From TrEMBL:
The lineage of its organism: Bacteria, Bacillati, Bacillota, Bacilli, Bacillales. Keywords: ATP-binding, Nucleotide-binding, Transport. This is ABC transporter ATP-binding protein. Signal peptide: none annotated. Belongs to the ABC transporter superfamily. Residues 18-245 form the ABC transporter domain. It comes from Marinicrinis lubricantis. The keyword Oxidoreductase does not apply. GO terms for molecular function: ATP binding. Pfam families: ABC_tran. PANTHER family: ABC TRANSPORTER ATP-BINDING PROTEIN MG467-RELATED (PTHR42798:SF2), LIPOPROTEIN-RELEASING SYSTEM ATP-BINDING PROTEIN LOLD (PTHR42798). It comes from the Bacteria.
Length: 245
């Protein structure tokens, strides 16, 4: 039987993208056992920028990795536009990520032997687009992040800020529904970090892209419409700084 999620009226009204129920994640056993997520409930709406904050080790990265399907839950339910991610096998989760998600990490995660444009076109090639179409869309994405003229540079020939902008171009090139960013500005100075945040803002406003950003930096969180605060594996508080669209 087709699985159904019992959406409430208000959830369907608020542009729901992801619903998570009772997420639990336990690493290790015995004396090494860590309960990284404790019965976390969270919904994410399309078109929002959400920041996740909290002290080191409170479960921010674990939450991001579990909701995005990069890591397995111990228990709980994740619904992505009505699809039960928690029941998916690895291949199905890979396909969901390739189709609908983009990722930006603190250490950029670019492939060192590839040029900027080759790094950016990878998600398009994975999605099955032709080389020609992938190249043209990748160049367009590089243009959006202001790096068209660096298309043939390898990561080692670019600054940290430029590499992170390439990573952002790679994350958005296939027009994902949601971009997950884990400390995206952690290795950047304030000015370069502001440029990254301006770009995310632009992509959010102009293209309706949804961002979830794990950060320690209040300056970064101040740019989000919603801030979720975690402690010891739980969401303890949340704050909205702008009215919902
Ligand atoms: N692969 C793992 N194996 C065992 N324990 C882990 C693993 N990954 C994370 N943990 C533990 O789970 C808890 C949550 O870790 P997580 O990385 O999610 O925290 P965080 O809030 O992102 O921390 P930080 O801000 O320092 O990056 C921590 O106690 C951590 O030590």
């Amino acid at each position: 039987m087709q699985e159904m999620y019992n959406y409430t009226h208000s959830e369907t009204e608020t542009n729901g993208l992801i619903y998570c129920r009772s997420l639990s994640k336990i690493y290790g056993y015995g004396e090494h056992r860590t309960e990284a997520l404790k019965q976390v409930n969270v919904n994410l709406a399309q078109g929002e920028i959400t920041a996740i904050m909290g002290p080191s080790g409170c479960g921010k990265t674990t939450l991001l990795q579990c909701i995005s399907g990069m890591d397995d839950l111990t228990e709980g339910e994740i619904w992505f536009r009505g699809k039960a991610v928690h029941r998916m096998g690895e291949d199905e989760k890979d396909a969901l990520r390739a189709e609908s998600m983009g990722f930006v990490f603190q250490n950029y995660n670019l492939i060192p032997v590839l040029t900027a444009v080759e790094n950016v076109e990878l998600p398009m090639l994975t999605k099955g687009y032709s080389r020609k179409k992938s190249r043209s869309i990748a160049l367009d994405a590089l243009g959006k992040v202001g790096l068209f003229d660096r298309q043939n540079h390898k990561p080692s020939q670019m600054s940290g800020g430029q590499q992170q902008r390439v990573a952002l171009a790679r994350a958005i090139v296939h027009k994902p529904l949601i971009v997950w960013a884990d400390e995206p500005t952690g290795a950047l100075d304030r000015q370069t970090s502001d440029k990254m945040l301006d770009l995310m803002d632009y992509l959010n406003k102009e293209e309706g892209m949804t961002f979830v950003i794990v950060t320690h930096d209040p300056h970064v969180a101040a740019r989000a419409g919603r801030i979720i605060y975690m402690d010891s594996g739980s969401i303890i508080h949340e704050k909205r700084t702008v009215t919902e669209r």
